[in-house]
Design a protein that fits this description.
heterodimer; A: 133 residues; alpha+beta; Thiol Ester Dehydrase, Chain A; six-stranded antiparallel sheet; globular; B: 156 residues; 4 helices; 6 strands; 26% helix; 33% strand; disordered N terminus
């Protein structure tokens, strides 16, 4: 199932990995490193936003399977709920609605306790046509 | 891990904002250094950072188009610094929310400029907006809008 989704160079470079599948959804994980740091000892908000976005795109890609063209995020809205501590961090996306051209998807990130979310995001993702447009 | 959490940016909290202090930190350590983000230009309530293209930032090996994650980081940094610029002081603040609209893909090989503007400060909040562009500001790659909660000097 995870074969349907490969992490882009950007995600691999920062150490994001597919930790496990939750049903059909890939759960990403990442150890904290200096490369992810904003203010000392904390995740950079942008790095966390990037991880949420990759998790959301992973959910869309896995949902679509082999079909569907290039995925283009139209927009993303991120809420930062807590400071991201220097710890292993997880993120997963959920499909809200999958249409023919557009998918609405949410994503959430957490650390030790899944009930205490670190950040949430909502994305609109366009499915490119097979010819790449 | 302790060597990471113990690291301290030598930002002079409570003192007057100084872009050169931020620029020095950005190039030395952390996520901005990994991305290759550096200072580009500044105005009264805005600053511009530059994100040079590199293959490691790609969303797709074939096209070389950079992922949107680096754009989020560029804009979070640029808008965050614009809050310091507007406050005129190195006081802490935290991102509450950030929305990014992607107009088009950045062209592979081109440096993306992120302009962050703090257009309003209240007692507790800073409201920001910004654009990312790779040629001219009237042909943007992305628009952003968001808010920061301001923390007092005692929490620095």
């Amino acid at each position: 199932m995870s074969d349907a989704f490969t992490l882009p160079p950007y995600a691999l470079g920062l150490g994001y990995e597919i930790d496990h599948m939750e049903g059909a959804l890939p759960v990403l994980a990442c150890e904290f490193t200096r490369d992810l740091m904003g203010r000392p000892g904390f995740w950079h908000g942008g790095a966390l936003g990037g991880m949420l976005e990759i998790a959301a795109l992973g959910a869309v890609r896995t949902h679509l399977g082999a079909q569907g063209g290039r995925l283009k995020p139209v927009n993303v809205s991120i809420q930062f709920l807590r400071g991201g501590l220097a710890k292993r961090t997880y993120a997963v996306g959920h499909i809200v609605r999958a249409g023919r051209r557009l998918v609405n998807v949410t994503a959430e990130a957490w650390q030790d306790d899944r009930a205490r979310l670190l950040a949430t995001a909502q994305l609109q993702v366009m499915i490119g046509r097979a010819n790449g447009e | 891990m302790s060597d990471i959490t113990d690291e301290r940016m030598p930002l002079p909290f409570g003192q007057a904002f100084d872009m050169s202090a931020v620029a020095g930190n950005m190039s030395k350590m952390g996520h901005s250094a990994w991305l290759g983000v550096h200072f580009h230009a500044e105005g009264d309530d805005w600053i511009e950072l530059a994100l040079p293209w590199k293959a490691e930032l790609a969303a797709d090996v074939e096209t070389g188009i950079i992922a949107s994650g680096p754009i989020i980081s560029l804009m979070d940094s640029a808008t965050g610094i614009s809050v310091w610029k507007k406050r005129g002081t190195f006081l802490p603040h935290v991102t509450v929310d950030l929305r990014v609209d992607y107009m088009r893909a950045a062209r592979p090989g081109r440096t993306v400029i992120g302009r962050g503007e703090c257009y309003r400060l209240t007692r507790s909040f800073a409201f920001i907006r910004g654009i990312a562009y790779d040629e001219t500001p009237d042909d943007p790659v992305a628009h952003v809008v968001g808010s920061y909660i301001l923390l007092g000097g005692d929490q620095a």
